[in-house]
Amino acid sequence: MVVRNPHLARLPGSYLFSEIGQRVATLRKARPDAPLIRLSIGDTTEPLPPSVAAHMGERAQAMASQAGYVGYGPERGMEPLRQLLSSAVYQGRIAPDELFVSDGAKCDIGRLQLLFDPSCSVAVQDPAYPAYVDTSLVAGRKVVYWPCTPENGFFPDLDTVEPAPLIFFCSPANPTGAAATRDQLQRLVEYAHAHRSIILYDSAYAPFVRDSQTPRSIFEIDGARQVALEIGSFSKLAGFTGVRLGWTAIPRELSFADGSPLATDWSRIITTFFNGASCLSQWGGVACLQPDGLQAIDQLATYYLSNAALLRAPLEAAGLSVYGGRQAPYLWVHTPGRDSWELFAHLLHTAHLVVVPGAGFGPSGRNFLRLSAFGTRPSMEEAAHRLAAATI
Amino acid sequence: MVVRNPHLARLPGSYLFSEIGQRVATLRKARPDAPLIRLSIGDTTEPLPPSVAAHMGERAQAMASQAGYVGYGPERGMEPLRQLLSSAVYQGRIAPDELFVSDGAKCDIGRLQLLFDPSCSVAVQDPAYPAYVDTSLVAGRKVVYWPCTPENGFFPDLDTVEPAPLIFFCSPANPTGAAATRDQLQRLVEYAHAHRSIILYDSAYAPFVRDSQTPRSIFEIDGARQVALEIGSFSKLAGFTGVRLGWTAIPRELSFADGSPLATDWSRIITTFFNGASCLSQWGGVACLQPDGLQAIDQLATYYLSNAALLRAPLEAAGLSVYGGRQAPYLWVHTPGRDSWELFAHLLHTAHLVVVPGAGFGPSGRNFLRLSAFGTRPSMEEAAHRLAAATI
């Protein structure tokens, strides 16, 4: 008798973006010619920097020769890639041997669940990226929501929230677009020290930080190495949503309550449940972190932020409060008194705009919409026109 | 207080191949010029077919243009790839919508653990690929060993084994190289029906099957669709150990004891814990399954089987019983009365040959060595010379 994992029943029927995809497919079936614009899933649309595509292309071609062929890679990822992450992303704050290359942040979020006893509850920003909650539910954890609203500047009130041993924290945040300040992150790190918690810090949107005072990594904060690990991604950094590449940084000081180091178990987990990111993706990552690559990918972030400004204008003109979009590719639009799934359907059917209902990110999101600024300039201009004409 | 997952303590300290890697590294440090030959990890060494490398290279280059760029792919994998797997690998026995593209068999073996209640024990062939056991231990399962020895022709005695709801089964098998016959697999399927078990069938080595009577897929067996899923891989099929690509086939008839379909939960799991295989790898997979690609990858399998024949000769000349190697890239060498880790050290230090101690695959492997035939012809010729000279 094969018994289903009972925790699967705790999940909503579909992953949020699958659910949206199904609703869009239904519309497409009924109205095949509807000129849809997607402001929904955070999917990059701009071509890769030429130096990155060229390097991947050359290395792929070379796989047909004995000299260029590679099989299984090093367990923690290619050495040059870890060296470059250490220097270019972490300015040496994280050593190459504290970095573990992966096929993306979402996959590592799922694998991280394997490290901890199911009795360890997890706190998430409310609203938050659904993978934190969904993977925690499958692992059998209790999930604690830490409200992040306009009233608290989208930073949890650490004096009143329910503590949890594990804390997922994303900054700049998905979906609110809020970038935590140095002071806020310092308080979060102190909180983790005081409560003996571990922060699972998601820096996927760090490339959008423009203000030199805003930290791009939790490891810019004193004391973080004892209480935090960090999950990073090339998806938004370099448009690698399809290429697949990410990493997790685990400082050697980080340990469980029994004193044993997390990194030892993480190494065991990735060698057992994973077999490395594609060599092609890793070569692409190496090209991204060269000086010309870094410049090109920074321009990509600037491009998407200009899209965000385009989308913001008509919404603010309509009198709505719009958050995010300045150091993040997402706008978080407050629509008081309106149910977000109803507004989703309204915009889909009347303006052919696909947005994400805030309720999909947690209870505090139910009167919000998330608009993604990933898109081509012409489509974002058209979307801005439609937003100006729409009644929200 | 962050508590370590207690199941992690059930694992051996290192993943088998990590342990071997560390022992080799120690030797390399002491004797940097030792001319090592690896007959250990099953890592492909031959270049990719030119058509495959060229297609991946072109698509990678095209990612620098708007027309060639892609972001997140379809959740189950690219449609053309699933169509080709359905036709070229499964001759239509499995439909495209029953196929889920992954970044490799090992990763899917880990994710499959999420489907089932931890109370479901798992049976493995003994000896078996360590990932079956290690991922099951982390999931909290009891592991039941089904001895596969020369005495039973490396097929478990189904009349006497301890039943289990989940059965990992690999054919051609790693490490024994035994390819189960149609009759044996028919009995396994009937056993699963009788015990209401599910077979997690690993067909990673199917490309090495040469005998037209030997099944390459569990779905060649009547009744398998109700009791089996199948994990497949491009690693050995096409030398994609570094490129990373695999799949899992889940027939729509396959269900839990409560009658709910496995495929629904699997779809939920891969959208939550995974984000698709690299688009570059998927394009490579499409090229592999074109007629010229299929021909080229079949030649690769033939090449490695010729290596296996080279290695077999000196071992048999020394009077050893050697199994496998005819429809699998592994030789399974019987060394009665000899401890396999001692023999591993002996061959490493005296002949500079890296083999895998059979004990690493399970209790029934303790008097065996696994030799991998993945390697270049010159290195395999040299390895054969050294084996002829070695005292085993």
Instruction: Write the element-wise H/E pattern of chain A from the N-terminal end onward.
Output: HEHHEHEHEEHEEHEHHHEEHEEEH
**Class of secondary structure makeup of chain A:** alpha/beta
List the strand order in the largest sheet of chain A. Answer: 2-8-7-6-5-3-4
Q: Which geometry of chain A do the CA atoms define? A: globular
Mean pLDDT of chain A: 96
Largest interface: A-B, 92 and 92 residues
Q: Tell me the quaternary state.
A: homodimer
CATH class of the largest domain in chain A: Alpha Beta
Number of domains in the coordinates of chain A? 2
The fraction of residues in strands of chain A falls at 5-15%
How large is the count of helical segments of chain A?
12
Question: Biggest sheet of chain A, in brief?
Answer: 7 strands, mixed
| Strand segment count of chain A | 13
CATH superfamily of the largest domain in chain A: Type I PLP-dependent aspartate aminotransferase-like (Major domain)
Instruction: Provide the gyration radius of chain A in Å.
Output: 21 Å
Query: Would you give the CATH topology of the largest domain in chain A?
Result: Aspartate Aminotransferase, domain 2
Helix fraction of chain A, binned, reads: 25-40%
CATH architecture of the largest domain in chain A: 3-Layer(aba) Sandwich
Distance between the termini of chain A: 52 Å
